[in-house]
């Protein structure tokens, strides 16, 4: 396995598995992250998965980059990164009607599909959470069906509402908070993706799976009210991957 170890300051080591967005690379990144988090290896503070690498944050008073590199090489040499793992499958309610999907008609026109086909392909896909980034809780999820692949918008929005479901390139995502954004908005969810009051503020984690479940505008309002009243839980189950 061709792996690079890159020193990032005096408190972090980056383990780089490749130079592309690839499910096999993501699986190796996530498996190594799980192994390190469960290893009780001295000095490790946190691991941060990305598309193709894992940043390992450590306490420099306990360990150093050289010691971590040797320990991680030993893990990789045992080929343990190929082992099966458990993952969460989230079923996220999604409303695809025009009032919640301002770019759906344009996406349909540009892809040559009917709007119903765009929705159908989106809900039929089990998405993989590659990483969290951009803003807190923002999940980069792949892999979008090829007919839906489009470049980002040429005119990014200054404000994208929280809960907006979007697509760009071969990814889909959900905006956790109101923010600028250049992705195509094809739906919205009433759930909360990021909550600072929670012990785990970001709902989704790298390695999770996501399926979108279509709902009506009335159901959207009902779930949003239940979320505000803190009486709604996003359906979730453990699966083997």
In brief:
With 241 residues, the chain is an alpha+beta fold.
Termini, distance in Å? Answer: 21 Å
Number of domains: 2
Determine the number of helices (DSSP H or I, runs of at least 4 residues): 5
Strand content of the residues, in percent?
25-35%
What is the residue-mean pLDDT, rounded to a whole number? 94
- The residue ranges in which pLDDT falls below 50 over 5 or more consecutive positions are none
Radius of gyration: 19 Å
Main sheet? 5 strands, mixed
- Indicate the CATH class of the largest domain: Mainly Beta
Looking at the structure, the CATH topology of the largest domain is Cyclophilin
CATH superfamily of the largest domain: Cyclophilin-like
Q: What labels would you give this structure?
A:
about 240 residues; alpha+beta; Gyrase A, domain 2; Cyclophilin; 2 domains; five-stranded mixed sheet; four-stranded antiparallel sheet; 5 helices; 14 strands; about 30% strand
Describe this protein's structure.
It is globular, with a radius of gyration of 19 Å. A hairpin with a 6-residue loop joins β6 (127-132) and β7. It has helices at residues 23-37, 65-77, 104-111, 115-124, 217-228, and strands spanning 4-7, 12-16, 44-49, 53-58, 86-94, 127-132, 139-142, 157-160, 164-168, 171-174, 179-181, 184-188, 209-214, 236-240. The protein has a five-stranded mixed sheet, with helices on one face. Strands 1-2-4-3 form a four-stranded antiparallel sheet, with helices on one face. The chain contains five helices and 14 strands. The protein has two domains: 4-82, Gyrase A, domain 2 (2-Layer Sandwich); 86-240, Beta Barrel (Cyclophilin), CATH 2.40.100.10.
């Amino acid at each position: 396995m061709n792996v690079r170890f890159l020193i990032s300051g005096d408190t972090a080591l980056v383990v780089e598995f490749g130079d592309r967005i690839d499910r096999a690379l993501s699986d190796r990144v996530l498996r190594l992250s799980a192994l390190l988090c469960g290893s009780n290896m001295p000095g490790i503070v946190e691991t941060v998965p990305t598309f193709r690498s894992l940043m390992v944050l450590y306490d420099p008073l306990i360990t150093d980059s050289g010691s971590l590199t040797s320990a991680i090489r030993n893990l990789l040499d045992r080929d343990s990164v190929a082992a099966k793992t458990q993952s969460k499958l989230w079923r996220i309610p999604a409303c695809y009607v025009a009032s919640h999907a301002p770019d759906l008609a344009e996406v349909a026109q540009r892809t040559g599909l009917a709007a119903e086909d765009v929705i159908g392909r989106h809900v039929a896909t089990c998405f993989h959470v590659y990483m969290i980034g951009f803003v807190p809780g923002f999940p980069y999820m792949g892999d979008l069906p090829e007919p839906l692949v489009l470049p980002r918008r040429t005119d990014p929005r200054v404000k994208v509402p929280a809960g907006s479901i979007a697509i760009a390139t071969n990814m889909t995502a959900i905006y956790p908070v109101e923010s600028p954004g250049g992705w195509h908005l094809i739906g919205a969810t009433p759930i909360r993706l990021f909550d600072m009051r929670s012990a785990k503020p970001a709902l989704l984690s790298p390695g999770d799976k996501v399926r979108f479940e279509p709902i009506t505008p009335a159901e959207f309002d009902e779930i949003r009210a239940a979320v505000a009243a803190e009486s709604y839980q996003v359906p979730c189950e453990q699966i083997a991957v």
